[in-house]
Amino acid sequence: MTGGSGAPPARPRRITLPDGPEVWCTSVPAATTMWREMAPPGTYDRAAASLTEGATVLDIGANIGLMSVLCARKAPAVRVIAAEPAPELFACLRLNLELHCASWEAECVAVADRPGELPFTYYPQAPGNSGLFADPVADREVTRRYLTNTGLDPEDAAELTEGLHEGVAYRVPAVTVSELIRRHRVARVDLLKVDVERAELDVLRGVADEDWPRVDRVVAEAHDEDGRLARCERLLRSKGFEVTVSQDPLLTGTVLYEVEAGRPA
């Protein structure tokens, strides 16, 4: 690792999530917040609930694997293929897949529009915001707004987010979705989940034209910056999907939106 001045990575801890399973994580607050995002009637819960036995899920930007865990709880025989580039998170991801998923494969890689090696920023204190295109100022503002939307006093929210996005920079291997499909011999992708902190359009562009017919459903977090959200919508519609965009009420006033795309009935 080179560069950065963040706190040293935390050791994995095994916790029980509120109304949820036992999981391994590096940050209890981050894991708890991410699990709240999985709760009904949210986008992730709807996507997981759509799965049937034997479905295949590509979990891109898996973090510690909570979406994979949720999918396995909804459809126990689901097959999970997960990708997470941060070694600290990948260690927890593997432990959580072993705990909760009957059929899984995982790679410690970023997913982009082309293979190679890319710079990555890891936030030890805010692991869910880590990514290829980390922006500490913007990321702090999103977190601050989220906290105030929960009812926290603005001054307290500002204090809590101070130093939260001090990052550690290193380089990570990158692959495309289509490369993962080939490597793991995937015939059908029942759910493509994308949560990659500003790299969502690159991930979608990394699906080769011949592989889009394999993909049945997409759920993605998208940043409405520089027209990225609209471009994600256009790309998905051009591939034959019906697209819905929504926003978690706790993210009101931020650039974060949820994109759901499914094949017409």
From TrEMBL:
It comes from Streptomyces misionensis. Keywords: Methyltransferase, Transferase. PANTHER family: EXPRESSED PROTEIN, METHYLTRANSFERASE, FKBM FAMILY PROTEIN. It comes from the Bacteria. InterPro entries: FkbM_mtfrase (IPR006342), SAM-dependent_MTase (IPR052514), SAM-dependent_MTases_sf (IPR029063). GO terms for molecular function: methyltransferase activity. GO terms for biological process: methylation. This is Methyltransferase, FkbM family. Pfam families: Methyltransf_21. Residues 59-242 form the Methyltransferase FkbM domain.
